[in-house]
Amino acid sequence: MTPTLTHTLLLLTSLTLGTAYAAPELPLADGQYVFQQRYAEHPQMQGINLDTEIKQGRISLTNNDSDGVFPLGLIDEGELYWHARSGHWIIIYEPKDKEAKDVGGCSDGPAVVDLENKIYWTC
Predict the structure, then answer these.
(1) 121: which strand partners?
(2) CA-based nearest residue to 112, from 92, 96, 94
(3) What's the pLDDT tens digit per position in 82-95?
């Protein structure tokens, strides 16, 4: 293989890998939204409404709906991060959360938020 061909193949490989692992853009602009809380074990079960603010890559979810399951007030907040391993947006609280093997639902990992469908997943 010639040096030029090798260089071209290496460049194409690195461009392909870089694209495969690049985080998508946040699907929601900064602003106020209403998210639905849903249960990972019962995804069709209706949960509560959460007043949600997204600002500068951070999210805060507040329960102003009902205190039957979750207390009223701030439920979760942190930095939004694309977790490539799972293919989900997660809420991270510290840098090590980026490397979590398990996320969302009933795992011990960071919470998952579906930004496109405005769902906050809980156990």
Answers:
(1) 38
(2) 92
(3) 999 999 999 999 99
The long-range contacts involving 6-11, CB below 8 angstroms and separated by at least 24 positions, are none
Alpha-carbon distance of 43 to 50, in angstroms, equals 16
User: DSSP letter string over 62-102?
Assistant: EE-S--SSS-SEEEEEEEEEEETTTTEEEEESSGGGGG-SS
pTM above 0.85, yes or no: no
What H or E segment, with its residue span, contains residue 120? strand 119-122
**Amino acid at the residue 20:** A
Q: 40 and 122 in contact (C-beta within 8 Å)?
A: yes
Single-letter residue type at 24: P
Between the alpha carbon of residue 23 and those of residues 9, 18, 92, the distances in Å are 24, 10, 15
CB atoms within 10 A of CB 78: 18
7: three-class secondary structure by DSSP: helix
Token pair belonging to 24: 């998508």
Residue type, 43: P
Query: What single-letter amino acid sits at 21?
Result: Y
